[in-house]
Amino acid sequence: MCKIEIPDHPLQLLIQTIDCKLSLYQGDQCVFVHCPLRSLHPGPIKYSQLMASLLIANNGFLNSVKFSLLSSGSQKRINYDWSFNLGDTALELDIFDGQSNQQNIVVLCRRHVSCFDGSGAIKWQIKLESVGMAMCTYRNLLAPDYQSIRLIIGTADEQLLIFNEDKLAWTCSISKPAFILKVCTFTKVFENVITMLAPDGRLCVGWLGTEPTIYKVPDTKMNDYNEKIEYWKSLELKIKESGGGILEKNKKISGISIDFLVGAKEKRTIEHNAANNVPFLNLEIVFGGLENVTKLHVNIKSELATPNRQIVLNVPESKSSSSLLVPFYVGNSKMPKNATIQIAAHCFHSQISGMKSFDLPFDLMFGETTVDRNSKYKITIDTDASVIPVNQLFSEFSSENTQAIGFHIHGYESSSNVSIFAANKSNRYRIQSENASLLQFAAKELVNRIDKIVKNVQIGSTVPFEYISKNVEELQERMSIKKKEQKIIDCRMKEVRAIELLSLDMAKSGNFTSLAQIDMLFDKSYRELLDSMENLAKNDGCIEENKNCLASLFQLASDISKYNKCDTIINENFFTFTDQNLRDRLTWAAGTDRGNEMKLIEKLCEHTTTKNRHEMQKIEEENEGEE
Q1: Where would I find the PTHB1 N-terminal domain in this sequence (predicted)?
Q2: 83 contacts 120 by C-beta, under 8 angstroms
């Protein structure tokens, strides 16, 4: 898509579809639809107001055509003013106004960047060592050569390359590859900021961490080593005379302290990413130990939603502490599995950091609902003390039932029910839910509340291996489906390439007798390819959901093992931050490859700590001594 800006005419949009058809829109009205261009793959398009021409970079060629030919309404074959073979797939196309009303055409391809003048003559070219993904041209009005072309190029290996025409000025690393790059001005504070959009939809706005003009290569100079030796001797003498005073002033800086102040829970939030009719809570985060800190970068990790997860906090010069008010609520994009948040704060200038986690109130995430005794997933908590009424355990809710209470996540009433039952005769609590991922959070909250009321209570439970086994089987099935879908996509891509080669051979020979059949075959193969890619994306979403559920069940197994005075390496992060598959991860942790996945999981959950083994051995020795 590109904008068509003609003097004394309203703004128009020219859109190229996937089959290379051109459509011109003025507002919501379609002005014309032109016949397909002589291309198989669509590419970037750009309108040049100075040349009154449309630049098209389809199929590895850069073409220029007068816009008047397109807007005339004729369906005849288009003759280009000039054409240039790029030798690669074009990704970005931009027009840069130079000196004397000359326009420069900059094209980003996968492996190179080329610059042309208005007649199609190449001016310079940059070879890229890695695959380019995004490009942005901008002008630096403060520089003496402000009319020169300045580029920012994002590559697939998570790098930003900054060029002054064909000369590399600076390079830096980024956290994720940039899919779209812009240099934008939002307010007087945020001027000329780099705006990047990642393939996963994450938007990053900011400046470079370092200034290229400051950190340039120093000029060549000769060192006088005798002078350096005398300087260090005088500095050492000053340190001895001060009795270590200089070292005392430059003592190691401690980390950033983080405290939390919980505000009142409000009834409803109006944030754009919140679910319908959900409450919110303002959490005040207090940062201490901020001497000589002017800017603090704060990152928030939470299953619950918040307006911003990355915040830059400006700290006044005269203060050593600062606070930040952050609202938390249930989001509309993903159902939360727990109410724990993690706050990380870092100052790049002084290199001090701080990190702390905090559990938000239970009623911020859950609301009261009817009890469901037919839920599919169940877990039992045994205690050695009398059962506490559930309405006393969860006193913030208005339930009067002493033996059962039901909850649901705000905004997700149909799929997030959790019911807790109390059995007076057996001193047991039972948790039931239709979502296996919520068992861990509900069990953890219940045990914490019991432990606060009854001191030194003994708690036990059974690891739900059947739920873990079912989830592992579903994950393995999804992974096998993914392999099949990838093979289907490979076959479809080979079909599309073969049809492209056949079309090129027909174009070279000039024989277009079977063009309609080739077009029909290409349309069928291309749509099957798109359907396969869509199925693969859906399957990847299911795999991600299975992994999240498995992580929650692993954490539940870890908690239950601790209740039973055991310890296990399995937890919620066991299979999260790794590129290994589940079996490789389990065989590495268990130290053996015998048995299937469930046998390995059961073996890992049976391991006890060295301390518990010593205690059991000591008890056995005492019993033998008494006998």
Answers
A1: 1-212
A2: yes
Q: Which fold has domain 257-360?
A: Immunoglobulin-like (2.60.40)
* Region 311-335 average pLDDT: 89
Question: Taking 60 as the threshold, does the pLDDT of residue 483 lie above it?
Answer: yes
Closest listed residue to residue 549, CA positions, set 473, 460, 603: 473
Residue 612 in this model has a pLDDT that exceeds 70: no
Q: Is the pLDDT of residue 379 over 90?
A: yes
Is residue 96 within 8 A of residue 151, CB to CB? The reply is: no
CATH superfamily of 2-206: YVTN repeat-like/Quinoprotein amine dehydrogenase (2.130.10.10)
Report residue 301: phi and psi, to 5°: -115, 120
Q: Which two tokens stand for residue 587?
A: 């065989």
**How far apart are the two ends of the chain, measured CA to CA in Å?**
89
Tokens linked to 586 = 């389990």
As to burial, measured by CB atoms within 10 angstroms (0-12 exposed, 13-18 middle, 19+ buried), residue 397 is middle
* Three-class DSSP category at 6: coil
Q: Amino acid letter at 23?
A: S
Counting Cβ atoms within 10 Å, is residue 186 exposed (0-12), middle (13-18) or buried (19+)? exposed
CATH 3.40.50.970 given to domain 365-461: no
Maximum alpha-carbon separation in the chain: 108
pLDDT greater than 90 at residue 207? no
E strand or H helix at 306: none
| 230 three-class SS | helix
d(CA 351, CA 346): 7
Instruction: With CA atoms as reference, report the closest residue to 333 among 362, 305, 302.
Output: 305
Q: What residues does each domain of the chain span? A: 2-206, 257-360, 365-461, 466-606
How crowded is residue 626: how many other Cβ atoms within 10 Å of its Cβ?
Answer: 6
One-letter amino acid identity for 371? V
Q: pTM higher than 0.70 for the full model? A: no
3-state secondary structure of 198: coil
Q: How many C-beta atoms surround the C-beta of residue 529 within 10 A?
A: 17
Three-class HEC string of 144-191: CCCCCCEEEEEECCCEEEEEECCEEEEEEECCCCCCEEEEECCCCCCC
Residue-by-residue DSSP string for 24-63: EEETTEEEEEEPPPS-SS---EEEETTTTEEEE--TTEEE
- Assess contact for 514 and 499: CB atoms under 8 A: no
